[in-house]
Amino acid sequence: QVQLVQSGAEVKKPGSSVKISCKASGGVFSRYGISWVRQAPGQGLEWMGGILPIFGTENYAQKFQGRVSITADESTSTAYMELSRLRSEDSALYYCAFTTAAGTGYHDYWGQGTLITVSS
Amino acid sequence: QSVLTQPPSVSGAPGQRVTISCTGNSSNIGAAYDVHWYQHIPGTVPKLLIYSNVNRPSGVPDRFSGSKSGTSASLAITGLQAEDEADYYCQSYDNSLTASVFGGGTKLTVL
Predict the structure, then answer these.
(1) Which residues does A80 contact at the CB level (< 8 Å), separation at least 6?
(2) Which of A14, A15, A29, B14 is deepest in the core (most CB within 10 A)?
(3) Would you give the DSSP letter of residue B92?
(4) A44–B48: do the CB atoms touch at under 8 Å?
């Protein structure tokens, strides 16, 4: 059973960056696919990007390319998502989501969510 | 606007059957990529409901079922219960976007 614990809520200024962590326990971290999904107020789920630590490969949604970076530290079983050049529209609840079945793409474990508020 | 189209809302009375559609195109569902479904009750974490088109994770009642045909997929819920009131999302992969995508979500109201 995999458990995911994300870092706490943050308030950021427009134009700044935020880095959220997602620490995993249980399972074999390096074998999992790790994605980040966000939900803005009143909006649906939005896939931002993902990483496969075992291959060191990343993939980002076109909307976020150039602004997002997803990394994974296997030594601490922690994934990170950094989003730069923040704007008010980035205010959202951000989830890490793991895929434990290789090559499938579905997210069977989710972090509790991290609320990011972008405000001047 | 997502490449996977879902109805914004559906409703049904307790005990009834409802279906939620997820319509894609030849770059995603029609390209034989699997469809997954999630239940999201506001204030909680999204929950995997159906994976790889038709499979239920352990613990998901058999009242929930998935199907896929051509460029569309569907989630069916039978014997509606008040606790089923939630937002439901489909997910697949799109090879023109080279990214995973979610549908816009469907709000299920149990009357």
Answers:
(1) A19, A20, A21, A22, A69, A70, A71, A72, A73
(2) A29
(3) E
(4) no
- Which of chain A's residues have a Cβ under 8 Å away from the Cβ of B105? 44-45
CB B97 within 8 A of CB B36: no
Q: How far is B94 from chain A (nearest CA, A)?
A: 11
Separation in Å, CA B80 to CA A57, B22, B59, B83: 42, 20, 17, 8
Residues in B touching A61 (Cβ below 8 Å): 97, 99
Which residues lie across from A47 on neighbouring strands?
A: A37
Would you give per-residue pLDDT tens digits along chain B (111 residues)? 899 999 999 999 999 999 999 999 999 999 999 999 999 998 999 999 999 999 999 999 999 999 999 999 999 999 999 999 999 999 999 999 999 999 999 999 999
Do residues A70 and A51 lie in contact, with contact meaning Cβ atoms separated by under 8 Å? yes
- Which token pair is B26? 């030849």
pLDDT at residue A103 above 80?
no
Tokens of A7: 């870092």
Q: What letter represents residue A119's amino acid?
A: S
Q: What is the C-alpha to C-alpha distance for residues A94 and A6, in angstroms, rounded to an integer?
A: 9
Question: CB within 8 A of B59, min separation 6: which ones?
Answer: none
